[in-house]
Amino acid sequence: MSAICYRCKKDYKQRWRLGRHLKRKKPCVKKEEVEVEVEEEEEEKKIKCEFCNKFYKYNSTLTRHLKTCKIKQEKEKKRYECIYCHDVYIKKCFLDKHLKFCNKKYELEDCLEEVDLLKKKVKTLEISNVGINKELQFVNKELQFLKSEMKILKEKRNI
């Protein structure tokens, strides 16, 4: 047992639902009028996104759309890249979230700590080498002095 609205041609399985439909404060519209209204709404959507060619009724809606328009973002190449693993993100907030958990970041920080330790070791070795170098210079000077003394002694023997 079905009931059909004589205005909008909508089909109801129970008559009481059709009765409720007909008693609404805002009455239903004839099917032909509905099609005309849809065409009018499409004509009202006059604002067009220059990137993806979508139409919007209000300028504010277009402005909101432009913030996330993928084609616009590709053309503008405004991307945010992780300096550690080089992943690319469309929004800065996505990059910030990624940076909190980026494994390469922590690996790099560990490597930097190791590099700092190695630098400190090199500095201590350089300092100790400076002392050794001074001693070597002193020993070399003594050797040169002794060599010169030997030459003098050899010359005295030959005379």
Question: Care to describe what's here?
Answer:
66% of the residues lie in helices and 8% in strands. The radius of gyration is 44 Å and the shape is rod-shaped. By secondary structure, it is mainly alpha-helical. The relative contact order is 0.04. The model has no long low-confidence stretch (mean pLDDT 77). Strand 5 (80-81) and strand 6 form a beta hairpin. The strands form 3 sheets. Strands 1-2 form a two-stranded antiparallel ribbon. The chain has 6 helices and 6 strands; from the N terminus they run E-E-H-H-E-E-H-H-E-E-H-H.
Concise overview:
By secondary structure, the protein is mostly helical. 66% of the residues lie in helices and 8% in strands.
> Which strand order spans the largest sheet, edge to edge or round the barrel?
1-2
Largest sheet: 2 strands, antiparallel
Give the quaternary arrangement of the chains. single chain
Q: How many helices does DSSP assign?
A: 6
- H/E element string? EEHHEEHHEEHH
Helix content: 55-70%
Q: Could you tell me the strand content as a percent range?
A: 5-15%
Global geometry:
rod-shaped
* Rg calc: 44 Å
First-last Cα distance: 146 Å
Quickly give the structural class. mainly alpha
Unreliable residue runs: none
Average predicted local confidence, pLDDT:
77
Number of strands: 6
